[in-house]
Amino acid sequence: MKHLLFAAGLALAATTASAGDNGLMRKDSALGVTETVDAMVTAMEGAGITVFARVDHGAGAASIGEDIGASQLLIFGNPKVGTPAIKDDPAAGLYLPLKVLVYEDAMGGTKIVYEEPVAILGKLGGVSEDAAYLKTMAGALAKFTDAASN
Question: What is the tens place of the pLDDT at every residue in 134-150?
Fold first, then answer.
């Protein structure tokens, strides 16, 4: 039953994706923050991606008496994809693994935001903006965030 509800939620989710000038991709999710992150974790683990951490910013804020709403940062990656970037430019290790933020906006909607890999790593001198791994990273980010927002 739980899986049917999850599938129904995914089917009903509204997706709006937009890229700003700063390289951030933003999407809407009809699910709550926790459910959206859970859906991404399920999709990532199913694809063999390592989830390194799930940071609960909302809980952190609550621990000091503040309320920022629900907000979670998911940190994940795959050494087969990230290692070539780090070999091309060791400073890429500063930006990897990849991250996705899911938060509740002021209107109560759930937002997904991440930075495009070319915007993150393309500014490094040793990383070519047309490197195949950048396309792989971008495709994975789109796939996993779409799985959580569609």
Answer: 999 999 999 999 988 87
